[in-house]
Protein backbone atom coordinates (compact mmCIF):
# COMPACT_ATOMS: atom_id res chain seq x y z
CA UNK A 1 0.00 0.00 0.00
CA UNK A 2 1.10 3.55 -0.62
CA UNK A 3 0.23 5.65 2.37
CA UNK A 4 2.13 8.88 2.96
CA UNK A 5 1.08 9.05 6.60
CA UNK A 6 3.25 11.95 7.68
CA UNK A 7 1.84 14.25 4.98
CA UNK A 8 -1.72 12.93 4.81
CA UNK A 9 -2.39 13.16 8.56
CA UNK A 10 -0.31 16.27 9.22
CA UNK A 11 -1.79 18.66 11.81
CA UNK A 12 -3.50 21.58 10.05
CA UNK A 13 -1.04 24.17 11.36
CA UNK A 14 2.02 22.25 10.10
CA UNK A 15 0.30 21.65 6.76
CA UNK A 16 -0.37 25.38 6.38
CA UNK A 17 3.27 26.22 7.16
CA UNK A 18 4.36 23.73 4.49
CA UNK A 19 1.85 25.21 2.01
CA UNK A 20 3.09 28.74 2.66
CA UNK A 21 6.73 27.74 2.04
CA UNK A 22 5.78 26.02 -1.21
CA UNK A 23 3.54 28.88 -2.31
CA UNK A 24 6.29 31.45 -1.74
CA UNK A 25 8.79 29.49 -3.80
CA UNK A 26 6.24 28.76 -6.58
CA UNK A 27 5.28 32.44 -6.90
CA UNK A 28 8.94 33.46 -6.92
CA UNK A 29 9.81 30.93 -9.65
CA UNK A 30 6.79 31.89 -11.75
CA UNK A 31 7.64 35.59 -11.44
CA UNK A 32 11.28 35.07 -12.37
CA UNK A 33 10.93 32.43 -15.09
CA UNK A 34 7.62 33.08 -16.83
CA UNK A 35 7.07 36.42 -18.61
CA UNK A 36 3.27 36.04 -18.36
CA UNK A 37 3.34 36.05 -14.53
CA UNK A 38 5.99 38.76 -14.40
CA UNK A 39 3.82 41.05 -16.49
CA UNK A 40 0.51 40.19 -14.75
CA UNK A 41 1.91 40.57 -11.24
CA UNK A 42 3.82 43.75 -12.05
CA UNK A 43 0.66 45.29 -13.52
CA UNK A 44 -1.24 44.31 -10.36
CA UNK A 45 1.68 45.71 -8.29
CA UNK A 46 2.10 42.50 -6.35
CA UNK A 47 5.53 40.88 -5.97
CA UNK A 48 6.81 37.58 -4.57
CA UNK A 49 7.92 39.23 -1.32
CA UNK A 50 4.32 40.34 -0.69
CA UNK A 51 3.31 36.72 -0.01
CA UNK A 52 3.90 36.63 3.75
CA UNK A 53 0.87 34.53 4.77
CA UNK A 54 -1.39 32.06 2.96
CA UNK A 55 -4.10 34.71 2.90
CA UNK A 56 -1.81 36.88 0.78
CA UNK A 57 -2.53 34.56 -2.16
CA UNK A 58 -5.69 36.67 -2.51
CA UNK A 59 -3.54 39.57 -3.73
CA UNK A 60 -2.57 37.60 -6.83
CA UNK A 61 -4.69 37.84 -9.99
CA UNK A 62 -6.60 34.76 -11.19
CA UNK A 63 -5.57 32.83 -14.27
CA UNK A 64 -8.21 31.40 -16.64
CA UNK A 65 -8.39 28.97 -19.51
CA UNK A 66 -8.20 31.94 -21.90
CA UNK A 67 -4.85 32.98 -20.43
CA UNK A 68 -3.59 29.42 -20.88
CA UNK A 69 -4.79 29.39 -24.49
CA UNK A 70 -3.09 32.69 -25.22
CA UNK A 71 0.16 31.20 -23.95
CA UNK A 72 -0.20 28.25 -26.38
CA UNK A 73 1.80 26.09 -26.69
CA UNK A 74 4.72 26.59 -24.27
CA UNK A 75 4.35 30.16 -22.99
CA UNK A 76 3.71 29.10 -19.37
CA UNK A 77 6.65 26.72 -19.06
CA UNK A 78 9.12 27.60 -16.29
CA UNK A 79 11.83 25.28 -17.62
CA UNK A 80 13.65 24.73 -20.86
CA UNK A 81 11.94 22.34 -23.27
CA UNK A 82 14.78 19.82 -22.81
CA UNK A 83 13.61 19.31 -19.22
CA UNK A 84 10.02 18.56 -20.30
CA UNK A 85 9.50 14.81 -20.52
CA UNK A 86 5.81 14.64 -21.48
CA UNK A 87 3.17 16.84 -23.08
CA UNK A 88 -0.61 16.54 -22.79
CA UNK A 89 -3.44 18.78 -23.85
CA UNK A 90 -7.14 19.29 -23.33
CA UNK A 91 -9.48 18.50 -26.19
CA UNK A 92 -9.21 22.07 -27.47
CA UNK A 93 -12.94 22.19 -28.06
CA UNK A 94 -13.11 25.98 -27.94
CA UNK A 95 -10.29 27.24 -30.08
CA UNK A 96 -6.73 26.42 -29.09
CA UNK A 97 -6.25 23.53 -26.68
CA UNK A 98 -4.62 23.98 -23.28
CA UNK A 99 -1.19 22.37 -23.11
CA UNK A 100 0.29 20.75 -20.01
CA UNK A 101 4.03 20.05 -19.72
CA UNK A 102 5.71 17.75 -17.19
CA UNK A 103 9.28 17.35 -15.98
CA UNK A 104 10.49 14.02 -14.60
CA UNK A 105 9.72 15.27 -11.08
CA UNK A 106 6.21 16.43 -12.13
CA UNK A 107 5.41 12.95 -13.44
CA UNK A 108 6.47 11.56 -10.08
CA UNK A 109 4.30 14.09 -8.20
CA UNK A 110 1.35 13.18 -10.41
CA UNK A 111 1.90 9.47 -9.74
CA UNK A 112 2.05 10.24 -6.01
CA UNK A 113 -1.39 11.90 -5.93
CA UNK A 114 -3.03 9.01 -7.80
CA UNK A 115 -1.17 6.44 -5.69
CA UNK A 116 -2.56 8.03 -2.53
CA UNK A 117 -6.04 7.81 -4.04
CA UNK A 118 -5.71 4.20 -5.17
CA UNK A 119 -4.58 3.36 -1.64
CA UNK A 120 -7.70 5.06 -0.27
CA UNK A 121 -9.72 2.73 -2.50
CA UNK A 122 -7.83 -0.28 -1.20
CA UNK A 123 -5.82 -0.93 -4.39
CA UNK A 124 -2.27 -2.21 -3.82
CA UNK A 125 0.39 -4.53 -5.16
CA UNK A 126 -1.84 -7.61 -5.17
CA UNK A 127 -4.29 -5.94 -7.54
CA UNK A 128 -4.87 -5.84 -11.28
CA UNK A 129 -6.32 -2.54 -12.39
CA UNK A 130 -8.21 -2.25 -15.68
CA UNK A 131 -7.96 1.30 -16.94
CA UNK A 132 -10.65 2.19 -19.49
CA UNK A 133 -9.74 5.90 -19.49
CA UNK A 134 -8.44 7.13 -22.83
CA UNK A 135 -4.69 7.19 -23.40
CA UNK A 136 -3.25 9.83 -25.72
CA UNK A 137 -3.36 13.60 -25.21
CA UNK A 138 -6.12 13.23 -22.60
CA UNK A 139 -4.55 13.12 -19.11
CA UNK A 140 -6.98 10.53 -17.66
CA UNK A 141 -5.34 7.33 -18.87
CA UNK A 142 -1.76 8.22 -18.06
CA UNK A 143 -2.41 9.71 -14.63
CA UNK A 144 -4.00 6.48 -13.44
CA UNK A 145 -1.26 4.49 -15.20
CA UNK A 146 1.60 6.19 -13.33
CA UNK A 147 -0.24 6.03 -10.00
CA UNK A 148 -0.83 2.33 -10.50
CA UNK A 149 2.91 1.73 -11.02
CA UNK A 150 3.72 3.66 -7.88
CA UNK A 151 1.25 1.68 -5.81
CA UNK A 152 2.63 -1.56 -7.23
CA UNK A 153 -0.56 -2.80 -8.92
CA UNK A 154 -0.51 -4.45 -12.36
CA UNK A 155 -2.25 -2.23 -14.88
CA UNK A 156 -4.17 -3.21 -17.99
CA UNK A 157 -3.93 -0.13 -20.27
CA UNK A 158 -6.95 -1.11 -22.35
CA UNK A 159 -8.27 2.45 -22.92
CA UNK A 160 -11.84 3.09 -24.13
CA UNK A 161 -14.13 1.15 -26.42
CA UNK A 162 -14.25 -2.53 -27.47
CA UNK A 163 -16.79 -3.23 -24.76
CA UNK A 164 -17.04 -7.00 -25.20
CA UNK A 165 -13.27 -7.34 -25.26
CA UNK A 166 -13.14 -5.28 -22.04
CA UNK A 167 -15.44 -7.78 -20.35
CA UNK A 168 -13.50 -10.76 -21.67
CA UNK A 169 -10.19 -9.31 -20.44
CA UNK A 170 -11.74 -8.43 -17.07
CA UNK A 171 -12.77 -12.06 -16.68
CA UNK A 172 -9.67 -13.75 -18.13
CA UNK A 173 -7.09 -11.51 -16.44
CA UNK A 174 -8.94 -11.39 -13.11
CA UNK A 175 -9.11 -7.59 -12.85
CA UNK A 176 -9.80 -6.49 -9.25
CA UNK A 177 -10.02 -2.75 -9.89
CA UNK A 178 -11.73 -0.73 -12.62
CA UNK A 179 -11.38 2.85 -13.78
CA UNK A 180 -14.11 4.31 -16.01
CA UNK A 181 -16.48 7.20 -16.62
CA UNK A 182 -19.80 6.43 -14.86
CA UNK A 183 -21.83 6.26 -18.08
CA UNK A 184 -19.33 3.88 -19.68
CA UNK A 185 -19.25 1.74 -16.52
CA UNK A 186 -23.01 1.30 -16.59
CA UNK A 187 -22.82 0.50 -20.30
CA UNK A 188 -20.13 -2.15 -19.62
CA UNK A 189 -22.28 -3.77 -16.94
CA UNK A 190 -25.35 -3.80 -19.17
CA UNK A 191 -23.48 -5.41 -22.07
CA UNK A 192 -22.09 -8.03 -19.65
CA UNK A 193 -25.62 -8.81 -18.42
CA UNK A 194 -26.86 -9.11 -22.02
CA UNK A 195 -24.15 -11.71 -22.58
CA UNK A 196 -25.18 -13.63 -19.48
CA UNK A 197 -22.30 -12.43 -17.30
CA UNK A 198 -23.14 -11.02 -13.87
CA UNK A 199 -20.71 -8.11 -13.25
CA UNK A 200 -20.99 -8.83 -9.50
CA UNK A 201 -19.26 -12.15 -10.08
CA UNK A 202 -16.23 -10.63 -11.80
CA UNK A 203 -14.51 -10.06 -8.44
CA UNK A 204 -14.04 -6.30 -8.81
CA UNK A 205 -13.26 -4.87 -5.37
CA UNK A 206 -12.97 -1.14 -6.14
CA UNK A 207 -13.98 1.27 -8.90
CA UNK A 208 -12.61 4.73 -9.56
CA UNK A 209 -14.58 7.05 -11.79
CA UNK A 210 -14.81 10.64 -12.92
CA UNK A 211 -14.44 12.86 -16.03
CA UNK A 212 -18.17 13.70 -16.33
CA UNK A 213 -21.13 14.88 -14.26
CA UNK A 214 -23.00 12.25 -12.23
CA UNK A 215 -25.45 11.94 -9.38
CA UNK A 216 -25.55 9.82 -6.24
CA UNK A 217 -28.20 7.70 -8.00
CA UNK A 218 -25.71 6.93 -10.76
CA UNK A 219 -23.08 5.98 -8.19
CA UNK A 220 -25.58 3.67 -6.46
CA UNK A 221 -26.43 2.09 -9.78
CA UNK A 222 -22.73 1.43 -10.54
CA UNK A 223 -22.22 -0.01 -7.05
CA UNK A 224 -25.28 -2.26 -7.34
CA UNK A 225 -24.27 -3.53 -10.78
CA UNK A 226 -20.71 -4.41 -9.76
CA UNK A 227 -21.40 -5.19 -6.10
CA UNK A 228 -18.56 -2.96 -4.88
CA UNK A 229 -17.76 0.65 -3.92
CA UNK A 230 -17.23 3.32 -6.56
CA UNK A 231 -14.94 6.24 -5.70
CA UNK A 232 -15.00 9.69 -7.23
CA UNK A 233 -11.78 11.02 -8.81
CA UNK A 234 -11.38 14.70 -9.74
CA UNK A 235 -8.69 16.44 -11.70
CA UNK A 236 -8.04 18.68 -14.66
CA UNK A 237 -5.44 18.92 -17.42
CA UNK A 238 -4.52 22.50 -16.51
CA UNK A 239 -3.25 21.59 -13.03
CA UNK A 240 -1.77 18.15 -13.87
CA UNK A 241 -4.60 15.72 -14.60
CA UNK A 242 -6.68 13.37 -12.43
CA UNK A 243 -5.72 13.07 -8.77
CA UNK A 244 -6.38 16.59 -7.47
CA UNK A 245 -9.11 15.06 -5.29
CA UNK A 246 -10.01 11.41 -4.60
CA UNK A 247 -12.50 9.82 -2.21
CA UNK A 248 -11.52 7.52 0.63
CA UNK A 249 -13.43 4.53 2.02
CA UNK A 250 -15.83 6.89 3.86
CA UNK A 251 -17.02 8.44 0.55
CA UNK A 252 -17.67 11.74 2.31
CA UNK A 253 -15.99 14.13 -0.07
CA UNK A 254 -12.78 13.99 -2.11
CA UNK A 255 -9.49 14.45 -0.28
CA UNK A 256 -7.47 17.20 -1.96
CA UNK A 257 -3.71 16.55 -1.89
CA UNK A 258 -3.16 19.91 -0.19
CA UNK A 259 0.63 19.71 -0.11
CA UNK A 260 0.45 19.61 -3.93
CA UNK A 261 -2.64 21.70 -4.74
CA UNK A 262 -3.83 24.71 -2.77
CA UNK A 263 -7.64 25.05 -2.98
CA UNK A 264 -9.81 28.15 -2.57
CA UNK A 265 -13.54 28.66 -3.05
CA UNK A 266 -14.69 31.96 -4.52
CA UNK A 267 -18.00 33.60 -5.35
CA UNK A 268 -17.93 33.41 -9.17
CA UNK A 269 -19.60 36.82 -9.47
CA UNK A 270 -17.76 38.95 -6.90
CA UNK A 271 -14.57 36.83 -6.92
CA UNK A 272 -14.42 37.10 -3.12
CA UNK A 273 -12.92 34.12 -1.28
CA UNK A 274 -15.58 32.21 0.69
CA UNK A 275 -15.29 30.27 3.93
CA UNK A 276 -15.56 26.51 4.40
CA UNK A 277 -18.83 24.68 3.71
CA UNK A 278 -19.97 27.53 1.43
CA UNK A 279 -20.69 26.54 -2.19
CA UNK A 280 -18.78 28.43 -4.86
CA UNK A 281 -16.23 28.07 -7.66
CA UNK A 282 -13.08 26.06 -7.02
CA UNK A 283 -9.76 27.87 -7.58
CA UNK A 284 -6.56 25.80 -7.57
CA UNK A 285 -2.83 26.53 -7.33
CA UNK A 286 0.06 24.17 -8.07
CA UNK A 287 2.41 24.05 -5.07
CA UNK A 288 4.73 21.35 -6.36
CA UNK A 289 5.14 21.73 -10.09
CA UNK A 290 8.36 22.49 -11.93
CA UNK A 291 7.41 22.46 -15.61
CA UNK A 292 4.35 24.66 -15.61
CA UNK A 293 3.19 26.17 -12.32
CA UNK A 294 -0.44 27.34 -12.57
CA UNK A 295 -1.37 29.84 -9.86
CA UNK A 296 -4.97 30.66 -8.83
CA UNK A 297 -6.65 28.87 -11.74
CA UNK A 298 -10.41 29.40 -11.97
CA UNK A 299 -11.74 25.90 -12.65
CA UNK A 300 -15.36 27.08 -13.18
CA UNK A 301 -16.37 23.94 -11.25
CA UNK A 302 -18.87 24.50 -8.42
CA UNK A 303 -18.30 22.72 -5.12
CA UNK A 304 -17.65 23.39 -1.43
CA UNK A 305 -14.81 22.49 0.92
CA UNK A 306 -14.55 21.26 4.50
CA UNK A 307 -11.42 21.22 6.67
CA UNK A 308 -12.81 18.85 9.30
CA UNK A 309 -10.63 15.83 9.92
CA UNK A 310 -12.08 12.82 8.08
CA UNK A 311 -13.01 9.60 9.85
CA UNK A 312 -10.20 7.89 7.87
CA UNK A 313 -7.68 9.99 9.82
CA UNK A 314 -6.60 12.22 6.94
CA UNK A 315 -6.45 15.95 7.71
CA UNK A 316 -6.41 17.45 4.21
CA UNK A 317 -9.38 19.44 2.91
CA UNK A 318 -12.26 17.55 1.31
CA UNK A 319 -14.35 18.85 -1.56
CA UNK A 320 -17.90 17.73 -2.28
CA UNK A 321 -18.64 16.36 -5.74
CA UNK A 322 -18.96 18.93 -8.53
CA UNK A 323 -22.59 20.08 -8.86
CA UNK A 324 -22.23 22.27 -11.92
CA UNK A 325 -20.28 24.97 -13.71
CA UNK A 326 -20.12 28.72 -13.33
CA UNK A 327 -20.00 28.99 -17.13
CA UNK A 328 -22.19 27.41 -19.80
CA UNK A 329 -20.01 24.40 -20.55
CA UNK A 330 -21.68 20.99 -20.68
CA UNK A 331 -19.88 17.69 -20.43
CA UNK A 332 -21.23 14.96 -22.63
CA UNK A 333 -19.60 11.53 -22.87
CA UNK A 334 -16.60 13.07 -21.11
CA UNK A 335 -16.21 15.76 -23.82
CA UNK A 336 -16.51 19.44 -22.94
CA UNK A 337 -18.88 21.34 -25.21
CA UNK A 338 -19.73 25.02 -25.23
CA UNK A 339 -22.88 26.46 -26.86
CA UNK A 340 -20.54 28.85 -28.67
CA UNK A 341 -19.15 25.91 -30.67
CA UNK A 342 -22.62 24.87 -31.77
CA UNK A 343 -23.25 28.48 -32.77
CA UNK A 344 -20.04 28.57 -34.78
CA UNK A 345 -21.01 25.33 -36.54
CA UNK A 346 -24.46 26.71 -37.41
CA UNK A 347 -23.10 29.96 -38.78
CA UNK A 348 -20.85 27.98 -41.11
CA UNK A 349 -23.86 26.28 -42.68
CA UNK A 350 -25.71 29.38 -43.77
CA UNK A 351 -29.26 28.00 -44.07
CA UNK A 352 -29.77 28.02 -40.32
CA UNK A 353 -30.76 30.96 -38.15
CA UNK A 354 -28.54 31.58 -35.10
CA UNK A 355 -31.46 30.51 -32.92
CA UNK A 356 -30.92 27.12 -31.43
CA UNK A 357 -31.46 25.06 -28.31
CA UNK A 358 -29.28 22.22 -27.01
CA UNK A 359 -31.13 19.48 -25.17
CA UNK A 360 -29.05 16.93 -23.28
CA UNK A 361 -30.76 13.78 -22.05
CA UNK A 362 -29.73 10.43 -20.68
CA UNK A 363 -32.57 8.09 -21.67
CA UNK A 364 -30.57 5.02 -20.70
CA UNK A 365 -27.04 5.30 -19.45
CA UNK A 366 -25.42 7.18 -22.30
CA UNK A 367 -25.82 10.89 -22.95
CA UNK A 368 -27.70 12.07 -26.00
CA UNK A 369 -27.67 15.54 -27.46
CA UNK A 370 -30.35 17.05 -29.62
CA UNK A 371 -29.86 20.44 -31.24
CA UNK A 372 -33.05 22.20 -32.32
CA UNK A 373 -32.33 24.76 -34.99
CA UNK A 374 -34.57 27.36 -36.60
CA UNK A 375 -34.23 27.37 -40.38
CA UNK A 376 -35.32 30.01 -42.85
CA UNK A 377 -38.95 29.99 -44.02
CA UNK A 378 -37.90 29.01 -47.59
CA UNK A 379 -36.36 25.74 -46.46
CA UNK A 380 -39.55 24.86 -44.66
CA UNK A 381 -41.46 25.03 -47.93
CA UNK A 382 -38.75 23.25 -49.92
CA UNK A 383 -39.83 19.73 -49.15
CA UNK A 384 -38.42 16.79 -47.26
CA UNK A 385 -35.38 16.12 -49.41
CA UNK A 386 -33.96 19.62 -49.03
CA UNK A 387 -34.73 19.60 -45.29
CA UNK A 388 -32.83 16.33 -44.89
CA UNK A 389 -29.87 17.77 -46.78
CA UNK A 390 -29.75 20.82 -44.50
CA UNK A 391 -30.14 18.62 -41.43
CA UNK A 392 -27.19 16.44 -42.50
CA UNK A 393 -25.09 19.48 -43.32
CA UNK A 394 -25.72 20.96 -39.86
CA UNK A 395 -25.03 17.61 -38.17
CA UNK A 396 -21.69 17.28 -39.99
CA UNK A 397 -20.72 20.84 -39.20
CA UNK A 398 -21.44 20.32 -35.48
CA UNK A 399 -19.50 17.04 -35.49
CA UNK A 400 -16.48 18.76 -37.09
CA UNK A 401 -16.60 21.49 -34.49
CA UNK A 402 -17.18 19.40 -31.34
CA UNK A 403 -16.06 15.90 -32.26
CA UNK A 404 -19.36 14.30 -31.29
CA UNK A 405 -22.48 13.35 -33.20
CA UNK A 406 -25.72 15.03 -32.28
CA UNK A 407 -29.30 14.67 -33.39
CA UNK A 408 -30.39 17.73 -35.36
CA UNK A 409 -34.05 18.75 -35.45
CA UNK A 410 -35.12 21.58 -37.72
CA UNK A 411 -37.90 23.83 -36.48
CA UNK A 412 -39.84 26.70 -38.03
CA UNK A 413 -38.63 30.26 -37.65
CA UNK A 414 -39.57 32.01 -34.40
CA UNK A 415 -40.68 28.81 -32.63
CA UNK A 416 -37.80 28.65 -30.12
CA UNK A 417 -38.02 30.83 -27.01
CA UNK A 418 -36.34 34.25 -27.03
CA UNK A 419 -34.51 35.61 -24.00
CA UNK A 420 -33.85 39.04 -22.66
CA UNK A 421 -30.15 39.30 -21.87
CA UNK A 422 -28.18 36.06 -21.67
CA UNK A 423 -29.83 33.35 -23.75
CA UNK A 424 -30.48 30.04 -22.10
CA UNK A 425 -29.17 27.75 -24.79
CA UNK A 426 -28.86 24.48 -22.90
CA UNK A 427 -31.57 22.35 -21.35
CA UNK A 428 -29.85 19.62 -19.42
CA UNK A 429 -32.42 16.98 -18.52
CA UNK A 430 -29.90 14.51 -17.11
CA UNK A 431 -30.71 15.53 -13.56
CA UNK A 432 -27.10 15.63 -12.35
CA UNK A 433 -27.75 17.49 -9.10
Automatic annotation (TrEMBL):
Enzyme Commission (EC) number: 6.2.1.30
Pathway membership, UniProt: Aromatic compound metabolism
Keywords: Ligase, Nucleotide-binding, Phosphopantetheine, Phosphoprotein
InterPro entries with a match to the protein in the record: Adenylate-forming_Reductase, AMP-bd_C_sf, AMP-dep_Lig_C, AMP-dep_synth/lig_dom, ANL_N_sf, PA_CoA_ligase
GO biological process, one term: phenylacetate catabolic process
Positions of the AMP-dependent synthetase/ligase domain: 90-284
One MF annotation (Gene Ontology) recorded for this entry: nucleotide binding
Annotated ranges, domain AMP-dependent ligase C-terminal: 334-430
One Pfam short name: AMP-binding
Subunit structure: Monomer.
Protein name as catalogued: Phenylacetate-coenzyme A ligase
The species this protein was found in: Methanobrevibacter thaueri
Lineage: Archaea, Methanobacteriati, Methanobacteriota, Methanomada group, Methanobacteria
Amino acid sequence: MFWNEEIETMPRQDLEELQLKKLQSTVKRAFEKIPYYNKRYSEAEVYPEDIETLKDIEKLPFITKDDLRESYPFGLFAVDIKEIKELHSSSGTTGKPVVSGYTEKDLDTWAETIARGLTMMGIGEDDILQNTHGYGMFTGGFGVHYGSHKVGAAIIPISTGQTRRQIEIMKDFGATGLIFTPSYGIHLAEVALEDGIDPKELGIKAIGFGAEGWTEEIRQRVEELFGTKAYNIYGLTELMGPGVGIECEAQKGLHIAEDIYYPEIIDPNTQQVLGENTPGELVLTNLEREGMPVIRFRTKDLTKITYEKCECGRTHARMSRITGRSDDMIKVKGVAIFPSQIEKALLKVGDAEPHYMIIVTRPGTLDEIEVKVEVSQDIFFDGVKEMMAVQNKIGKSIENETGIRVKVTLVEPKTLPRFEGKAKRVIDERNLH
